[in-house]
């Protein structure tokens, strides 16, 4: 399947470019978990691949993408995601299409993922995903079996993912906001694997007791493994594993303090993704080499928008009115990345040194590190993207 997450983006040629005069909204899957691209029903006995995925531009909330896909693919066992697209072998330093001048600026490429807030988030999350540091559930949240007759008659399944996968090819006919009622809460996709056996016996359907994991009043959903928790009311997701810990979302509004296993994060960033991963096969509490990774938000220099009201695409005269932004100027290089404002604490007496790395992973300078008992404490520099603890 191709599966994308995006805010609204309305305007001529919006399928492949971002122009001044286009309208947009910034949208986070942390506050809309039913649309998460990892919410996929898997076929029993078959591999599952996401052949295209992205948090598409100009959506501001990009750094959550690799974090959430790492966490929930690990939980559900979805095998791999191909991020779309990387048209060059280095960072996308200039997304402008300078042969398309529009007003005082230029059209921007819409689909590139080799940016700091997307590709830049790969190292820690690739380690966690490829080394299975986040536990896969040992049982499905939902096991459904469907007879062939039910399929031919197009009988509605007990649960289904969003019908909107590829914004350029398939608008979908059965979205998470569909008024059609199903038996199983779609938040089950964030509890554990959801699977279906075709040509099976519906009498063998099984659904975990989702009430233990989903609290709609509080706005929280937990995984079967107990390692992942998402609070969609505050827009924050946390992961606690032996060798991996992280928090992602609207940190300041959620209180700014997060304890994830041996790692504690204090941050007044409006939005950030902060994670720590052990790189030496030891638990975080005893590791002698820990990668700390931070993603915030990014815009080109001079990027300008203004508040605007516009009509959503589709629906004709009944299209809903949306409060969002109009793009005034798409800006120009260099990228401007929101500064990191965070203090990290790690309960690990073996850590004695912190080294800041540049975006290509090369050491730039040591960072002051202090201790309180067995806890290493450091104030992350404003330009933190990668930092190595040893």
The fraction of residues assigned to DSSP E strands is: 35-45%
Low-confidence stretches: 172-177
Q: Strand order within the widest sheet?
A: 13-14-15-16-17-20-21-31-27-28
Query: Got a strand count?
Result: 31
Helix content: under 10%
Oligomer: single chain
N-to-C span: 41 Å
Which secondary-structure class do the elements indicate? mainly beta
What is the number of helices?
3
Largest β-sheet summary: 10 strands, antiparallel
Mean pLDDT: 94
Descriptive report:
The protein is mainly beta and 390 residues long. Helix content is 7%, strand content 37%. It is built from 3 helices and 31 strands. The strands form 7 sheets. Strands 13-14-15-16-17-20-21-31-27-28 form a 10-stranded antiparallel sheet, with helices on one face. Strand 14 and strand 15 (228-231) form a beta hairpin. Helix 1 runs parallel beside helix 2 (122-130). The longest helix has 13 residues, at 64-76. The chain is globular. Residues 172-177 have low confidence and may be disordered.
Features of the shown structure:
31 strands, globular, five-stranded antiparallel β-sheet, mainly beta
In terms of topology, how is this protein built?
Elements: E1 2-5, E2 9-10, E3 17-18, E4 23-24, E5 41-43, E6 49-55, H1 64-76, E7 80-83, E8 96-102, E9 105-109, H2 122-130, E10 142-146, H3 148-152, E11 194-198, E12 206-207, E13 214-215, E14 220-222, E15 228-231, E16 236-240, E17 244-249, E18 257-260, E19 263-267, E20 272-278, E21 290-295, E22 298-301, E23 304-311, E24 321-329, E25 332-337, E26 342-347, E27 354-357, E28 363-367, E29 370-372, E30 375-379, E31 386-389
Parallel strand pairs: 1-6, 5-11, 6-7, 10-11
Antiparallel strand pairs: 2-4, 3-9, 4-24, 8-9, 10-12, 13-14, 14-15, 15-16, 16-17, 17-20, 18-19, 19-26, 20-21, 21-31, 22-25, 23-24, 26-30, 27-28, 27-31, 29-30
Helix pairs in contact: 1-2
